[in-house]
Amino acid sequence: MKPAGDEPPGLLAARQNGLRIGYAAGGFDLFHVGHLNILKHAKSQCDYLIAGVVSDEMLQLTKGITPVVPLVERLEIVRHISFVDEAVAEVVEDKLDTWRDLRFDVFFKGDDWRGTPRGVHLENEFAAVGVEVVYFPYTVNTSSTILRRALDALTRPDAAGLRQPRTSTP
Questions:
Q1: What is the CA angle 103-104-110, rounded to 5?
Q2: Which helix (H) or strand (E) holds 32?
Q3: pLDDT tens string 119-165
Q4: Is 119 exposed, middle or buried (0-12, 13-18, 19+ CB in 10 A)?
Q5: Which of 24, 84, 121, 130 could form a disulfide with 42 if both were Cys (CB 3.0 to 4.6 A apart)?
Q6: What is the SS3 assignment for 86?
Q7: What global pTM score does this model have?
């Protein structure tokens, strides 16, 4: 947990002015239009948007993936998106711990969590502290998983014409 008074000035001002503070977490690896859509929709439903950029270690722990783009670069990309008021590294698995540090009013999540045991648990935990959970649909036909697969295919030695030509032996 952050020490008292360690809030960024923008977040402190938002809180003091009674603004609705939103939090949207994601890996934001291989940043694409789906990521942009989630942040855009999230900002339309709050006054101050914090984007939680999931750390390399947390992505490995929770999804079993190693990001292509390192955390420091993902943070830099996300903090320059016009819809984002602040970008923070998400370094803990428990979203309630993140809430204890940031005290957001609404939590944005992809609709693949809706109705799942994890989603219901998250909704119940947040309801107990007065946080609304809002789900957004993922953008059809684009995802980091699809992009990661394409990159993997392109980097195989036999991909994209990189296969060594066969030579006939005399």
A1: 135
A2: none
A3: 899 999 999 999 999 998 876 666 666 666 666 666 666 655 554 44
A4: middle
A5: 24
A6: strand
A7: 0.81
